[in-house]
Specification:
Elements: E1 5-10, H1 23-35, E2 38-43, H2 55-68, E3 74-77, E4 80-81, H3 91-97, E5 106-110, H4 117-129, E6 133-137, H5 147-157, E7 162-166, H6 167-170, H7 176-187, E8 191-195, H8 207-216, H9 221-228, H10 230-238
Parallel strand pairs: 1-2, 2-3, 4-5, 5-6, 6-7, 7-8
Helix pairs in contact: 8-9
This protein binds fe (ii) ion.
Family: Belongs to the metallo-dependent hydrolases superfamily. CpsB/CapC family.
Catalytic activity: O-phospho-L-tyrosyl-[protein] + H2O = L-tyrosyl-[protein] + phosphate
EC number: 3.1.3.48
Length: 272
């Protein structure tokens, strides 16, 4: 178990979003995950498409079906939270999609494909203020994050967010700019982890191929493997805390960057 991949972004739940339409399709996708080397995953439906309160029993249903079908994949409940959904969720709902131990809970926040930077930074700040660390899903697909020497992305990283690069981006499925941005994150040492954002057979996991692509960018095999295995596993076991921005941060101006002044977090309090 400890040597396999851990996929922290996959649309695995049946019939809730643009992932598998039914349980059979979920099992098919789970089989693709296992064939790709994944041993554990978080089911991360688009939060706006699902009743968050249903996630625990929906994931339990998937785990039971996986066991019955002898597919060796362990699934934990999560969600891919859109930036506009952050203000709409209660504290209890945020907890249902969060991961990690009580003193280091974190949430998968979707980098918006429409490039709404101000909304992204505002949503991220709101989650940090509630004590959550942030794993930023596919930042390479949010093109304005890369303007001005990746100013927007750096704003997030210096506040403790981790960049989750998608295997499909690295392999060119989302176009040349997303691929170039993914390579830029990896080659610059800014990647926190790789995940699949898989949806089904037409958008499969491809983590093994992404690992190879990362090596072609100059990463060592162990370094690339850690992005698919050790780092995501540690995120589940050890969690992630937000950071206060460094004093003298350069991210205090600009037309689409929220300026937030608040005292340092230190060790973030666990959300209740
Ligand atoms: Fe996704």
């Amino acid at each position: 178990m400890d040597s396999g991949f851990v996929d922290l972004h996959v649309h695995l739940l049946p019939g809730v979003d643009d992932g598998p339409p039914d349980l059979d399709a979920t099992l098919e996708l789970a089989g693709l995950e296992v064939a790709d080397g994944v041993v554990a995953a978080t089911a991360t439906p688009h939060v706006a498409s699902v009743d968050v309160a249903e996630l625990p029993w929906r994931v339990a249903e998937v785990n039971a079906a996986l066991a019955k079908a002898h597919i060796p994949l362990v699934v934990e409940a999560g969600g891919e939270l859109g930036v506009r959904g952050v203000p709409r969720l209660s504290a209890e709902e945020l907890e249902l999609i969060a991961h990690g131990p009580a003193d280091a809970r974190w949430i998968l926040l979707e980098a918006p494909l429409d490039g709404a930077m101000r909304t992204l930074h505002g949503a991220a700040d709101q989650l940090r203020a509630a004590g959550y660390g942030i794993v930023l899903a596919h930042p390479e697909r949010c093109l304005p994050l890369f303007d001005d020497d990746m100013r927007g992305l750096m704003r997030e990283l210096e506040r403790g967010s981790l960049a989750q690069v998608s295997s499909s981006s690295l392999l060119g499925l989302h176009g040349i700019r997303a691929r170039r941005n993914a390579a830029r994150i990896l080659a610059g040492g800014h990647a926190g982890l790789l995940a699949s954002d898989a949806h089904g057979p037409r958008r499969p996991p491809c983590l093994t191929a992404a690992l190879r692509a990362a090596c072609e960018l100059g990463l060592g095999v162990e370094q690339a493997r850690a992005l698919c295995a050790d780092r995501p596993r540690a995120l589940l076991q050890e969690g992630l805390r937000p950071l206060a921005p460094a004093s003298g941060s350069s991210y205090v101006a600009g037309s689409d960057v929220s300026v937030v002044r608040r005292p340092p977090f230190g060790v973030a309090a666990a959300p209740s």
